[in-house]
């Protein structure tokens, strides 16, 4: 290296180490900025998963209630069995409903007819409020089951209920 080239090489070397010093701490700053965003996204994924799972359990409870109602011999029995089946299915699945309602449609409760059951559950999501999720979610599902064609049902209009 000549005497004239020596200062240029030193300047280049000093310039490159100065550039490295300016980037120190950048990855820590990026982590501090991105970490809360990642946590919120994960909490939202968990909240959506809990909602989807709860909705599926309410749909299963509505189907179980409709099946239980279809096995009854009178419309009033169908009402009682549907309510019992829906509440039993939800409690067995571990769903905690702040309020639950079961509506049974027995308007076509006759041989070859259909019974429909609508189950509505207000689920508690207060454990996920940090992610901006509301405290509760209302989930509703309707299940239907056919009544047997060749089975005799008691006529609820003739005093069978």
Automatic annotation (TrEMBL):
Classification via InterPro entries: TadE-like_dom (IPR012495)
Keywords, ordered alphabetically: Membrane, Transmembrane, Transmembrane helix
TadE-like domain span: 25-67
Record-annotated membrane-spanning stretches: 31-49
Descriptive protein name: TadE-like domain-containing protein
Q: Which organism is it from?
A: Nakamurella endophytica
